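User: Let's play a game. I give you a shape written as tokens, and you guess the letters that built it. Ready? Here's round one.
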């Protein structure tokens, strides 16, 4: 059955171009995923259609209110009997890494809660118990872009979304190493050559060169990943 992704937001219009382009679009056309947008504003009950309020105790900005978020979540969840994994996008959340993306791609239903303003009333977190997810240590104006990042990373992992030729199997992070450099035509551009080994036709040599490049890059650019890679190797049982 297709993965169902509910997106709860104050700005559903931000998602149209993204969901209607490239891989997210292709995945939906193939029937492997479906997207449902819900606007918190539709669940506001007062004359002003309020979704936010001033923080108790003072301070700058506004806070997303409980009622509209709880009602929007209940509404979206009722649309499908399968239980949804609730995810709330927030800089306070667990850092999105490929391992978490893989885990989320196995779910049948994701419900993504994107907020605006200074954040959510804490009772939303306490009551709905979502998995809080951050896409990095920087602050965005809202969770929408973070939700799109998560959707993009998840959808391309669903079996059948990518063709066999561009499958996600041996790419960056699948095994903890960065990707090797790639080249295409022409063989020479502005005096810069494609490395000879890639033109050699010797697949074993090419594979060895690529692995070496991946290790070098990871060591130079991402010492954190390199350390993890090495300790994983050291802990692997000998054959
Ligand atoms: N909302 C605002 N900043 C964010 C971030 N870095 N990750 C996820 N959601 C956010």
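Assistant: Ready! My guess for every position:
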């Amino acid at each position: 059955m297709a993965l169902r992704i509910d997106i709860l937001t104050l700005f559903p219009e931000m998602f149209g171009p993204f969901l209607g382009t490239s891989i997210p679009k292709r995945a939906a056309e193939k029937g492997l995923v479906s997207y449902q947008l819900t606007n918190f504003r539709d669940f506001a009950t007062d004359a002003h259609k309020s979704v936010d309020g001033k923080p108790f105790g003072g301070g700058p900005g506004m806070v997303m209110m409980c009622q509209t978020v709880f009602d929007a979540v209940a509404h979206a969840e009722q649309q499908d009997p399968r239980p949804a994994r609730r995810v709330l996008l927030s800089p306070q959340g667990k850092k999105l890494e490929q391992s978490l993306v893989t885990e989320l791609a196995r779910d049948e239903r994701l419900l993504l809660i994107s907020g605006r303003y200074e954040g959510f009333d804490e009772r939303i977190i306490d009551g709905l118990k979502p998995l809080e997810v951050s896409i990095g240590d920087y602050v965005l104006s809202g969770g929408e872009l973070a939700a799109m990042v998560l959707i993009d990373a998840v959808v391309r992992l669903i079996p059948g979304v990518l063709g066999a030729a561009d499958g996600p199997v041996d790419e960056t992070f699948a095994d903890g190493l960065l990707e090797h450099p790639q080249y295409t035509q022409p063989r020479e551009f502005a005096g810069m050559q494609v490395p000879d080994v890639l033109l050699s036709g010797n697949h074993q040599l090419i594979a060895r060169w690529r692995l070496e490049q991946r290790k070098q890059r990871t060591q130079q650019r991402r010492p954190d990943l390199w350390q993890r890679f090495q300790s994983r190797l050291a802990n692997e049982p000998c054959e």
